[in-house]
Amino acid sequence: MGKTTKRLSRPSALVRAEHGGAPVHLTKAEKSILDEALRKGEDLREEVESAVRAYGRWVLEKVFGDNAGAALDDGSKNAIWQELLRRAGGPTLRISRRALYSAVRIAALDRRLTTQAWQELDSGRKELLLPLRAPPLLLEAAKQVSAMDMSQAKTREYVTSLMQKDGRARQVRLTARGLSARVRKFHQGLDGAALGKRLGTLRASLKPTEREALLREVEAVRKLLGDVARAMR
Predict the structure, then answer these.
(1) Does the reported pTM lie above 0.70?
(2) Cβ-based burial of 215 (10 A; exposed 0-12, middle 13-18, buried ≥19)
(3) How wide is the angle at C-alpha 46 spanned by C-alphas 130 and 11, nearest 5°?
(4) 153, 18 contact by CB (below 8 A)
(5) Is 130 helix (H, G, I), strand (E, B) or coil?
(6) Of 213, 209, 217, 227, which is closest to residue 190 (Cα–Cα)?
(7) Residue of 68, 59, 151 lying closest to 110 (CA atoms)
C-alpha cells in the first residue's frame, strides 16, 4: 500500500492559517489549483466589498442626508433607519443588523477619517476596528494594523487587547430574536430520545481530565441559562 497523506481537519487548517503556521506542502497540480482559488477568492472579496461600500454610501446619502455624525449616532431617531433596523434579518431585508450597521458606520467613518491608513484598509478589518468607536482610537489602530499588515485574526486580537487595556470588554449586540434563536439552536442540537444513550457512550470515552473540563463548561452554561431565566421572569 502507498503512503497515506494525512489531511488536516477543517478546524485545524483554519487554526494553522490564522496563526501563521508552516504552509502545507502541495504538488505542482495542487499549487496551480490553489493559485486559481486565491485569485477567485480575491475577486469575490472585491465584488462583495464593493457592493457593501456602495450600499453603505447610499444609505448614508439618502437616509442620513450625507451627515456622517447622524449616521454614527447610536441613538438616532431617524424613522427610515429605525425601520431598516427592524426589518434587517427578515424576509424584506435579508442582511443582518450587524451587516447593516457595519456598512453604514464604515461609510460614515470613510467620510471622517480621510488618512491613507484608514482609507486603504479592507472593509473586513475596518469592521473589526469598529468596537473602538472613537475616531482618534480608530485612526491610531488603523495606522498600526496597516503598518504591521495584520491579518483579520491578528486585528481582532489587537482590538481586544486595546479594549482590555482601556478597561472595556467587547459589547455583545443582543436582541430578543437573536437570543431566542441561540437558545432554540442549542436546545434542538441536544434534544432527542437517544441523547441519554449517546451521553453514556461519550462519558465512557472521555479521560477524567476531559470529563472534568466538560463538566465545568456545562456548569457555566447552566448558570448562564439560569441568569437568563431569572432576568426574563
Answers:
(1) no
(2) exposed
(3) 70
(4) yes
(5) helix
(6) 217
(7) 68
Which residue type sits at 212?
E
- The C-alpha atoms of residue 57 and residue 71 are separated, in whole angstroms, by 11
- The contacts of residue 104 (CB under 8 Å, 6+ apart) are 56, 59, 60, 64, 71
Cβ atoms of residues 170 and 156 within 8 Å: no
Enter the C-alpha cell of residue 87: 426589518
Of 181, 122, 133, nearest in space to 155 by CA:
122
Q: Which three cell numbers stand for residue 221?
A: 452554561
Please give the angle made by the CA atoms of 200, 190 and 220, to the nearest 5 degrees.
Answer: 85
The residue assigned the cell 453514556 is 200
186 pLDDT more than 90: no
Alpha helices, DSSP H, located in the chain = 10-18, 28-62, 68-71, 79-87, 97-112, 116-119, 123-129, 135-148, 152-165, 176-190, 195-205, 208-232
> Which range (62-66, 98-102, 165-169, 208-212) has the least confidence?
165-169
pLDDT digits (tens, 9 = 90+) for 19-72: 556 778 899 999 999 999 999 999 999 999 999 999 999 999 999 999 999 999
Side chain identity, residue 221: V
